[in-house]
Amino acid sequence: MNFKILVIDDEPTLRDALHVALTHSGYEVFACRTGEEGLDLFPRENPDLVLLDHWLPGINGDEVLRRIRNLSPEIPVIIMTAQGSIELAVQLMKLGAFDFLVKPFELEQIEALVQKGLEKVRLKKELEWLRAQYQEKFRSGGIIRASKKMEEVLGLAEKLAQSSDTTVLIEGETGTGKELLAEYIHFLSPRANFPFIPINCGAIPRDLFESELFGYEKGAFTGAGEKGKIGKVETAQKGALFLDEVGELPPPAQVKVLRILESKEYSRVGGVEKRKADIRVIAATNKDLEEEVRNGNFRDDLYFRLNVVRLYVPPLRERREDILPLFRFFLTRFNDQFQKRFSQISKEAEAYLLQYSWPGNVRELRNAAERVVLMEKGDTILERHFSFLTGKEEVRRSQPAPTPFIPPQGIVWDEVEKVYLEEALRLKKGNKIQAARLLGITRSALLYRMEKHGLK
Length: 456
Prior knowledge:
The chain contains 19 helices and 16 strands. By secondary structure, the chain is α/β, with parallel strands linked by helices.
């Protein structure tokens, strides 16, 4: 990240020394000798930090500081002065100076203050960048959808976004867009100007989870960095912490997450200072957490803390109206990325996209669009472009369907249905999402039929 610094000082020796030293440190430096010249340069160059001499010919430093604060209230202004009285320091701070240095000073002193002042600017620029990314991602009015099911999901998500603290649990198969939905909630919330920090609970070794979540103090353990480390919770301060694949958390880590949710406090590893966790927690899972609780794999108290409001993202095969709008969106994106010119989809290709089962959901659809645009030529998407998917589908279809047997005396349909439900649940070890997928029905339909037959 490049920063601009404006130096205003009438002493040519000091001005030139600062110009050389700061340029050598990687900053873009503009230097001038009077307050009038500085105020002329300021709006044109839009610097990130100002080094201002207190005693200047013409307009003095106090007046320059006032005018700069009026133009840009948040910019750090460091005053350089030959008088170091307490009264002057108080006066400058009241006027809005970031800090001040008494001349003569070492270049190391000014560079340390500059770094301190620019850290604030860096954080502000990062927040602006994040805000721009969200606006770009959701510029078309939200998440692409055409189905009633996704309209209902997004309607509930938009209501949840109005709260800045309510914990949300998002359920759904892998690739359905759970993280995107979490980002959407954050983008619409009062915390949108602050970070959205994801952490993949299944990808972090259990021994490192606490230090990754809370950070650590220097020397906290063997191999700990000399300066310590900021954790995800601290990074997400005033924003949102997204716990992806929360069902993969090992029991010791579950205790740590529960503590954050209950007390809103934490300590770095190796530290004793209690820190406030001003964050919103959004969690996601592709597991049936209710079943995980019953099996003793997930703490019930953590489950109840997470499950304040639950959102279920349906798989793509249950909302086929979304397939073509999503594919066209990806087509446009990859046309731009790969400088291609695909502008239409043949009727046969559309039919294929709509009938394919998309076991990898939106992620698989995105990957398919990327591969086709990258590998093929022309302006029309054809059915044969998806031959790499056909093999997978044929393998699934190659399993011969069982020949039904109906005895002369007939059958009791409810008993047949119950047997299939029990067998699917047994094969998937009680996981309702996977059992429903095996039977080709939705999770809500499975739950309805289980209640109907008294199954638990």
